[in-house]
Write a structure and sequence with these properties.
Distance between the termini: 119 Å
Helix content: 10-25%
Structural class: alpha+beta
Order of helices and strands: HHHHEEEEEHEEEEEEHE
Number of strands: 12
Length: 263
């Protein structure tokens, strides 16, 4: 069979005939075969380039499921953000805490429990609170006949010495040495008169050293408050109350400043 005449006006969009083509399902059947029925035109190919193609023809990343995307985007936090549970870390208050990896990419430093060390370990703004035996109370007593004050941690000493309790507890000290603290010595001057000082030599007063009342701070630390010292001829008077200090001055005591810082 001859090829049909092709018009000079035919365009590239016109079907192309292959006179000797054989349809797959009809062996031996001579028929013109329309290529355009089975292959995309040039216009279709242009559409692919323009982004109108199906997903299979799009750039790889756009058609990928999350599991097939680059590793970092699909990795769990534990893989992207290495975190060591329990590793030592610095807390906001300067103590040493332990790392929490509940959220690996935003680890937290967990403060430790409070210790007896003149520091705020648990970052609650207070030092050594609720730590049993960390501090001990001091009682203030007065000898009515001899006129001297006694400051002691031993309550049995009060009645035995003929003293009367004035305040219990009056303030707190540490019973053992701690960082930044110093021993507060008790010096006996005779009768009911005692001096309390950082000086183990009792400030050259000739008094006998009766031991250590406790450990106190030379400067304000860990919430300590001033312990004011005043003196009279037969008494050294100590108070944590500025109003009481002023009253003592009004009745003849001499203000000797701050003796120490206590709790």
């Amino acid at each position: 069979m001859g090829e049909p005449p092709r018009s000079d006006a035919a365009t590239d969009d016109a079907p192309t005939y292959f006179p000797d083509a054989v349809l797959p399902d009809a062996p031996g059947l001579d028929a013109p075969f329309l290529v355009d029925a089975f292959a995309p035109s040039l216009d279709a190919a242009s559409e692919i380039d323009a982004g109108a193609s199906p997903d299979a023809a799009r750039p790889l990343d756009a058609a990928m499921p999350d599991a097939a995307r680059p590793v970092d985007a699909a990795m769990p936090d534990a893989s992207r953000c290495p975190c060591t549970p329990g590793a030592p870390c610095a807390t906001s208050c300067g103590s040493t805490g332990a790392t929490s990896c509940a959220s690996p990419c935003t680890p937290m430093c967990v403060a430790p429990s409070e210790l007896c060390n003149v520091s705020d370990d648990d970052c609650d703004g207070a030092c050594d609170e609720d730590v049993g035996g960390c501090r001990e109370s001091v009682v203030r007593a007065y000898h009515d006949s001899l006129g001297g004050h006694l400051y002691t941690r031993d309550r049995s000493e009060i009645a035995a010495g003929g003293f009367r309790t004035e305040a219990d507890p009056f303030f707190f000290v540490y019973p053992s040495a701690q960082p930044g603290l110093a021993a507060f010595h008790r010096c006996y001057l005779g009768r009911a008169h005692r001096l309390y000082t950082f000086d183990a030599g009792c400030e050259g007063s000739g008094a006998s050293d009766e031991g250590i009342l406790g450990y106190v701070a030379p400067s304000p630390v860990c919430g300590a408050r001033p312990l004011y010292r005043l003196s009279a001829s037969d008494d050294h008077f100590y108070t944590v109350d500025a109003g009481e200090r002023d009253f003592a001055v009004s009745i003849g005591y001499t203000d000797e400043g701050i003796a120490a810082y206590v709790w």
